[in-house]
Design brief:
homotetramer; 39% helix; disordered N terminus; alpha/beta; four-stranded antiparallel β-sheet; Aspartate Aminotransferase, domain 2; 2 domains; 14 helices; 372 residues; 13 strands
């Protein structure tokens, strides 16, 4: 088994003095996860999530969600999870309601339509284009029912929201309660995309805990990929049986990992807890803290917010020359859409792994970039 | 970042004295892979396979395949890879030719049909139900073209084979050349599912090397999941441009890993080489050696072969009482279909990780089990 | 509104002395249907089957089937009907059981797979490859349930049979009862493709009436296209609610005729009755009588049957030189597969419109063709 | 063949004094079509459009379109045609650009998504929400190409427009030329839904003739259902080979009519011509004339236009009490969306079959309804 490998065969990733705020999936995983993967490496377990680690991870998640009967499933990535869940919930006469900016509508390369389903975009919150409102959902459902031609239209069959949203914003507990009530009234399930759920749970601005979410959503997922895992999303159905044969659907969607225990082990680590708080939330706190400091730094330099986000994605309006100078100084981040005439929106993202010193270094760079 | 985790939160996997031959995905990954993942854990790289590790892994694979222009893509699992490749190759009037026993026909929960494509099963090799023959493929294509109603039928649009096959057997180089010639003559692509390709390459019975495969197939994949990786399959298109926008198709199929470098790093390790042979093949040799010893042991105990396989899957005809005794002695393996009256087919699988001592221990257990 | 049209703009169809037995959709419609279409031409009715003719046709069909609560829907053609019904019945983890020769498996250009569904072919009746047996269905369901890997497989979700079959044969009432019992036991619906149902009902060999079929099948359709209508198939669900929102599914499948009344009017005519027997069955009798005479004529000339059919499709084994001479004499019919060495299978089809004199003329031609 | 049918079995459609302006598919077909169907009823022809009538209809259409090499195909209905054409043009990484109000986006029950394709809605003409603009299409294509995440998005793969539009409006020849140029520049096909094309061609406001359309569109269809046929749409591909195996795709979509000649015969009649103008256009003129008179009448009563349409659909803003009185007087038409507070939009549709006297009768009714 021992082998000697010429190191020259490996890529050398230029670290330079780059300070990266591009996304929350730039690093690997929380070190405890790597440790556990190494420790368990030569265990022999059966495949496809039938192992004891996976069973244990489910138990820990059920406990954290306060729903002892919940069904829990693990998938590898977010698009896969959205496509499989939506395919499992909708019948062929139905579509999924979502905001125009929703990830499923814009950035999943048609994965939902690949399953034969229409994404029905509806008017978002006038204050926040990444959020739906209970009123908007109710109005859409009513308009559909009232339309004499509705038999020729795709019926609202479920509601998709994300928390945090694509713009880092949060639903309040009250908003979630109202949306949930509308959905239950209409008899259609509410699905929460929680790709970044950890960053909601770790944000002081958040008042909807895991147990609230489990009470108000019919199905949701707890994102691992962006919150400390190598990869992995945990789908939770508080009421078992919501989607029969879900394992077969996951397989059909190419999402059933052969070595399913890799998912089990990672969520075992993430939902292990020390002081009554799972590692999943604790490790997310670093992202919230560094993001808050980032906002403070930018505001301190007279930079305006593009949107006000209480989580790990921060959006600013930067003068184009500042954008240029930051890039020249080795700071990487995303322009949010095309450059505008003089001031353009940008996104800075922190994560569980963002070194606080990177943020402070950015502060210094900004002194120069803005001063000039 | 440092955390203390109560170990009691983790599952304890019963190792006992179990000797497991259930499958080739029971362990984690080659230790070098885990090492590299740990070493590179805090590198910051862009997502979705745009990083330097992935680029480097592609370079190494192109070199090993002897096709410097090849396009290489990484996906997470086999079903996902099959579904995405087939979806990329077929137009809507076409289907994929395959053996009735093919994985895509039986064990992928309808993932091919989910893309709207028909699996057209054809007569397999009369000597080996898991193989297609050039004659069989040619006859199917001719029957279709000759049928006056063929405009109402699904046209043969590509050929799917696996190497090794579902039954561990191998195509000879001559057979692959004949099949390739039939496909090129008909103008339809040949796709090889190489989920276990490493075990073919490491088998002394194999005479088709990676460069032959790259020359004869229009597209194929090099399976990592079952051959030393945590997960991952490397799709190779020797002629670039075979499937335009394949990255978008992977995303659409939910197969684009956010932290794409995890795949790049694993294949960097697997295609690093020491003595002119990639680790991928060297680590597979253990499976071939232990499988050969296994066959020797069973034959030595007067057990008959169910099929004669030169790779890591071995099929025997075991008396039902021997099956029972082996299980009681802690040996795990798969029955191959339902129990028959007195003697039933079973499958034993070895892998890159199978300890030789497990095989020897099985030898002793078999002494007792058969003796009685 | 009056217009003069130059007749030279129309195609002149060569009638010659051709005697045609190619299929049962070579002519237009029963003259009463054309009359009623003309009579009702300037009525103004609402679209999509919401008109009084359609309502009335449904009433007549419910009455003929003896199921006053049945839901009845009209579609234009058979492939469309099969695809829509199967799409409506199956969930994504399920497939449809069918004979390998089934129309849905061979001659619908992948319309079932286009909906994402697998056609699971099973062993047909050893005596008749176009029929399923209750035992075969039960065995397939059991094999699936017993398979430890069944979560990775497409589950049997419904059964598809045709009556008459692709080969003109019929299920006995006893066979239908046995198949129905197996399906109900397994909790999966039984669907009968009745594209040629009229020819079953008009055959003296048939002992399963419309009321039996309505009692034993969960859904079936009464084919109009091949039995006297211009086009049209009537789907009957004896228990209402079997497929919710079926109208929307029909629309989604492109099968909702704008001028739905055209279907209503045709089935009004076909299910109007004179002496306790709907025109649908009475007009089919001509096909049965001419087919029986055809069989008598061929047998009288020493020709062997390829299969023994009691309905309007007749299959013979003709010496190749007789085939040639018949064609030269202006008789058209279908070879059933490729020509064999000296004697080849052929299909002759009669219909509601076949002139008895054509059959007698064939008798004379055969005298010469066989005599030589 | 002769039969006596009790007339009481037929539905009696209440004609009363109803004056119907609900839609353009309320009557049957142009009488010449019924005549030809009757005349040809006992011809025997081969199926699926392989007959001489169909061939002849194609010839007439090619001639009318001025493109002798065009491929022409006949389908039964509009949704089916849209779904089949779009499915034939798009690859899986692509979607279809359309106005939010487009029929394919709103009223086809998800038929496009059923084929796995996304309808990408774009900003319509600010003056007419049912039209696209060349600028809007170009901007969408540019935004897509400029987006760094475009590999994760559905690519613009074709453009869908309708002429006349959903609101009865028309593209000018100049607009079509501009749109066509943008599409050709981008290398994506332009598809025109001509469900009501006859009403454009018959409108004096229209300056784009069939030959222009054939020159500017890559594919379009000539709608029969709403313009004098019983049913039927003729798809024209000016450059042959645009969609290979289109017949098989039509079959796969359930749109291949067994008695294909019914479509051929109808279009033979519609494209027969007397004075250099096909019956198709001549019969449409009645709709244009009655619609123009309708507009005159409404304007004469002080009613405002909701939109100004030069074709057979007219949109008005009627006081709610006038709506009520018209309905009470036996006038039927469609409310266009929900009732508003005091004045609501309504749609009146004329057709090839609208009796001019119905319009004059409406004039009288309106005198009373508005006077009060």
């Amino acid at each position: 088994m021992e082998t000697t490998i010429k190191m020259s065969t490996f890529a050398t990733v230029k670290r330079m003095t780059m300070i990266c705020f591009d996304s929350d999936y730039m690093e690997g995983a929380h070190p405890r996860i790597l440790d556990r993967l190494a420790e368990s490496n030569f265990e022999q377990t059966t495949g496809y999530g039938t192992d004891a680690h996976t069973e244990n991870a489910k138990r820990l998640i059920r406990k954290a969600c306060g729903c002892p009967d919940a069904e829990v499933f693990f998938l590898v990535g977010g698009t896969q999870t959205n496509a499989t869940v939506i395919d499992g919930l909708l019948r062929h006469w139905q579509g999924v309601l979502a905001a125009p900016t929703a990830h499923i509508n814009v950035h999943e390369a048609g994965a939902i339509e690949a399953g034969g389903h229409k994404v029905i975009t509806i008017e978002p919150d006038p204050e926040d284009c990444s959020k739906l409102t209970a009123e908007g959902i109710a109005a859409t459902i009513k308009t559909f029912s009232d339309d004499p031609t509705c038999e020729h239209m795709v019926a609202p069959g479920m509601v998709y929201i994300s928390h945090p949203t694509e713009y880092g914003s949060l639903y309040t507990l009250g908003e979630l309660e109202a949306i949930s009530a509308v959905c239950r009234d209409a008899g259609i399930p509410l699905f929460m995309d929680g790709a970044r759920l950890g960053y909601a749970l770790a944000s002081p601005a958040n008042d909807a805990g895991l147990k609230d979410i489990a009470r108000l959503c019919d199905i949701f997922y707890i994102g691992g990929t962006k919150v400390g895992a190598l990869f992995g999303e945990a789908v939770v159905m508080p009421q078992p049986g919501l989607i029969p044969h879900f394992t077969t659907l996951i397989k059909r969607h190419g999402g059933l990992l052969a070595k399913g225990r890799l998912l089990g082990i990672q969520f075992e680590v993430l939902f292990s807890d020390d002081d009554g708080k799972p590692l999943y939330v604790r490790t997310a706190e670093n992202a919230i803290n560094t993001a808050a400091r980032l906002k403070e730094i930018f505001l301190g330099h007279g930079i305006e917010l593009y949107m006000d986000s209480p989580t790990n994605q921060q959006f600013f309006l930067l003068p184009n020359d500042v954008i240029k100078r930051l890039m020249e100084a080795g700071v990487s981040f995303e322009q949010w859409g095309p450059l505008r005439e003089s001031v353009s929106p940008v996104r800075f993202v922190t994560s569980w792994a963002t070194p606080p010193e990177s943020v402070e270094r950015l502060n210094e760079i900004l002194d120069d970039a803005v001063k000039i």
